[in-house]
Amino acid sequence: EENQFIVDDVSKIIKEAIESTIGGNAYQHDKVNNWTGQVVENCLSMLTKEQKPYKYIVTSMIMQKNGAGLHTASSCYWNN
């Protein structure tokens, strides 16, 4: 069906948003807040372009692999 939620398509969108924002960059504490926001906004932008009748909630977490701090960002899209 045209409006079916396809997990593989959404996963591809998420991966594209992460790659376009972070790419191959190593963890950089001073950029994490910006990266989390950009990943969320890129995901929402690409998901809404699909014009599916869904409400989206996107949460982004970026952590350094040494057990250190945690930074998060989230956003929602509700059509009117």
TrEMBL record:
One of its GO terms (biological process) is microtubule-based movement. It comes from Haematobia irritans. Belongs to the dynein light chain Tctex-type family. GO terms for cellular component: cytoplasm; cytoplasmic dynein complex. Gene3D superfamilies: Tctex-1. It holds the Pfam family Tctex-1. It comes from the Eukaryota. This is Putative dynein light chain tctex-type.
